[in-house]
Each structure stands twice: as C-alpha cells, then as structure tokens.
Amino acid sequence: MRTEVIGIYQSGKGYKAISKALGLQRTTVRAIIHKWQKHGTVVNLPRSGRTTKITPRATTSKELQASLASIKVSVHDSTIRKRLGKNGLHGRCPRRKPLLSKKNIRARLNFAKKHLNDCQDFWENTLWTDETKLNYNNFAKMSGPKFLQSAVKDSLQVIANA
C-alpha cells in the first residue's frame, strides 16, 4: 500500500487524489510521503531502545534458561514469562472439570431418548440454541488429557446409570 502511494505521488498526483484513489486518509498519505522524502524508504524503521536478550527460537522457560545460561546471560523469570506470553505461549493449567455438569448430561440424554423416534417435522421446527457461557481467558484450560478423561468418564457414568 505504501509503495502504491509513492508510485502515484511520483506520477504527479496530490494528497487528495491519492487518498481518494486508495481509500486512505489524507493524513496517512501525507505521513507516508514525508517518511519517504526523509528516509528514502517506506518500510518500518528500527526504533530506539534496548534490544531484546531473548530470541524467539526456544519455546519453554526451561529451554530459554538453559540456552541463556550456556552463553552466560542472566535474565529474570518475569522477563522470560513476558516474552513467552508475547509469543502466544502462556503458562496455564488444564481445566479440572468438563463444561457440562452431571445434571446437564443426564437432561440431554433424557431429551435424546424421549425424542428418538420423532418425525422430521418436529426437528425442522426445533430451534437449537447454545447458552453455554465461555470464559475466553480460561478457554485454553479446557483441552488436554485430564479434561478429556473426566468428560468421557462422566458421560459413561450417566449412560450406565440411565
């Protein structure tokens, strides 16, 4: 997009014509052109500040600590956790119970048994809604072998008791 702005600008068009042609704000077009005039490029330039000590190659805090210790670099635990979180690796525990309670599993099973032989018209007139509350912060906790085992075990117990 930035190179298109510069190309149109070099052909002799003004800010207003460029902004209409590309659907950008005039201030955005102006900023792109001024950056190109000042630096000769439109790519993102490096910013000031300390460079990071951690590279994105390692995936766990243990691997990071081992690799950094081997090159004699001391990094605080909170720095490691922040960097892992920034790269999408959060230290979370798996959820301890399934989303459905035993009461809800039993109710669903009873509904399925009750309406097992209903005609097609009944199902076409049925409105299906999902009112399950999902907490997006804990959504990652619902995966894993513990969650799966407990969900399967609970379902089998309800089926056996029915």
UniProtKB/TrEMBL annotation:
The Transposase Tc1-like domain, residue ranges: 56-117
Q: What processes does the entry annotate via GO biological process terms?
A: DNA integration; DNA transposition
An example of a GO molecular function for this protein is: DNA binding
> Where is the signal peptide, in residue numbers?
none
InterPro entries, sorted: Homeodomain-like_sf, HTH_SB, RNaseH_sf, Transposase_5, Transposase_Tc1-like, WH-like_DNA-bd_sf
Pinpoint the Sleeping Beauty transposase HTH domain residues: 1-42
Matches recorded under PANTHER family:
SI:DKEY-77F5.3 (PTHR23022:SF135), TRANSPOSABLE ELEMENT-RELATED (PTHR23022)
Name under which the protein is recorded: Transposase Tc1-like domain-containing protein
Classification lineage: Eukaryota, Metazoa, Chordata, Craniata, Vertebrata
